């Protein structure tokens, strides 16, 4: 029972946190739950592809294998499937009506995936220590990758002139962050292990900054509504 709570609690707490960080127009719970379900489902095709790719990288040396496993096996495969699910979930959905929404839904998919992955690791190793470690590293890590993905999807949705660039970054940046995250751990190199925590803190700061930016820019933010009304009144004056 304790292991189950430990495996589930981080994702639940983070999802609630991100939901309430969307200050001005909350997203439908049903659609968020659908995102979580989609994220959970993709663990199966991702697992099959990752097992195949791991076999291909078995002959590499330690550092090349860490790069292969981090950037290709985990980073590219997991972020590609999450990207596809987020796109299917919201790109043409009318609830995606402001930039911050991209973050909420991308995080929902990311946490659905992270929850199933977390259950597997915690129960396969039957370890409270693994659960506690992943609660402060892997699950928040997936959250940050989701925030960054959602940030660029939000830009892509509402900036048609640069849409292709933002759509590419919505995959590329989370992939590189995810790959670097895993590579630093998988090498086992003392210097990279020491720099892992600063890298994690850097990612947290990036994620919080992205959410703050989109909250400030929200079309439902009273400050922005008042500013728009003032502009309209100014131009309507004789």
Structure description:
- The protein has 238 residues and is mostly helical.
- It has one domain.
- The chain contains ten helices and no strands.
- It has helices at residues 2-21, 29-41, 43-56, 62-90, 99-125, 128-136, 138-158, 163-186, 190-217, 222-236.
- Helix 6 (128-136) runs parallel beside helix 7.
- The longest helix has 29 residues, at 62-90.
- The chain is globular, with a radius of gyration of 19 Å.
- It starts with a helix and ends with a helix.
- Mean pLDDT is 91; it is low at 227-238.
Number of helices: 10
Number of domains: 1
Strand tally, please?
A: 0
Strand content: under 5%
Point out poorly predicted stretches.
Answer: 227-238
Mean pLDDT: 91
Distance between the termini: 70 Å
Which structural class fits the helix and strand makeup? mainly alpha
N to C succession of SSEs: HHHHHHHHHH
- Approximate shape: globular
Report the sheet with the most strands, covering strand number, pairing sense and barrel closure.
none
If you compute it from the alpha carbons, what radius of gyration comes out, rounded to the nearest whole angstrom? 19 Å
Helix content: over 70%
Task: Break the fold down into its secondary structure elements and pairings.
Elements lengths: L1 H20 L7 H13 L1 H14 L5 H29 L8 H27 L2 H9 L1 H21 L4 H24 L3 H28 L4 H15 L2
List keywords for this structure.
0% strand, 238 residues, mainly alpha, 10 helices
Task: Provide a concise account of the structure shown.
This protein is an all-alpha fold and 238 residues long. It has one domain.
């Amino acid at each position: 029972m304790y292991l189950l709570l430990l495996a589930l609690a981080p994702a639940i707490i983070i999802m609630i946190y991100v939901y309430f960080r969307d200050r001005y127009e909350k997203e439908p719970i049903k659609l968020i739950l659908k995102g979580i379900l989609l994220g959970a489902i993709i663990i199966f095709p991702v697992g099959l592809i990752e097992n195949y790719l791991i076999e291909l990288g078995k002959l590499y040396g330690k550092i090349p294998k860490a790069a292969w496993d981090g950037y290709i096996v985990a980073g590219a495969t997991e972020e590609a499937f999450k990207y596809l699910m987020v796109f299917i979930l919201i790109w043409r959905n009318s609830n995606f009506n402001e930039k911050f929404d991209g973050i909420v839904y991308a995080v929902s998919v990311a946490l659905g995936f992270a929850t199933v992955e977390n259950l597997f690791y915690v129960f396969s190793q039957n370890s409270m220590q693994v659960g506690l470690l992943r609660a402060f590293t892997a699950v928040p890590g997936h959250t940050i990758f989701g925030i960054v993905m959602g940030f660029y999807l939000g830009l892509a949705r509402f900036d048609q002139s640069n849409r292709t660039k933002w759509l590419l970054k919505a995959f590329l940046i989370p992939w590189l962050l995810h790959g670097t995250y895993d590579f630093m751990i998988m090498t086992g190199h003392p210097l990279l292990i020491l720099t892992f925590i600063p890298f994690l803190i850097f990612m947290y700061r990036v994620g919080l900054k992205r959410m703050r930016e989109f909250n400030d820019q929200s079309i439902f933010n009273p400050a922005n509504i008042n500013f728009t009304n003032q502009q309209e009144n100014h131009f309507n004056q004789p």
